[in-house]
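#lab-general

N.A. 3:47 PM
ok so I finally got the sequence cleaned up, no stray characters, all 115 residues accounted for. can someone with queue access submit it? mine expired

B.Y. 3:52 PM
send it over

N.A. 3:53 PM
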Amino acid sequence: MTQHDDMVRLQHMQDHALEAVDMIGGRSRSDLDQERMLELALVRLIEIIGEAAAKVSEGTQAKYPNIPWREIIDMRNRLVHGYDSVDLNILWDTIEIDLPPVIAELKKIVIDLGS
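B.Y. 4:20 PM
back already:
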């Protein structure tokens, strides 16, 4: 895998994380219970973030330990394989609490790799 491939995957992670955070903006956790399309969209965005993370090379992952690579990939696997028992509280907290610092780190990484 090339650095270019990693850059594309990191950009996908950043873009989809931003989209998830934007999607819950102005909403409450109860909206997730009432809007099936919101739930499906957020689950899919987290799946994509995890899939992209899994495709980032081990070297790049090791170079940027501030990204919780294993947790991101494991969450993707949990959503895909445990599709019938998604904990919406965990999904919401992941997007509301965990993604903003990941986005900040991804922005730094994209700048670093782009220079």
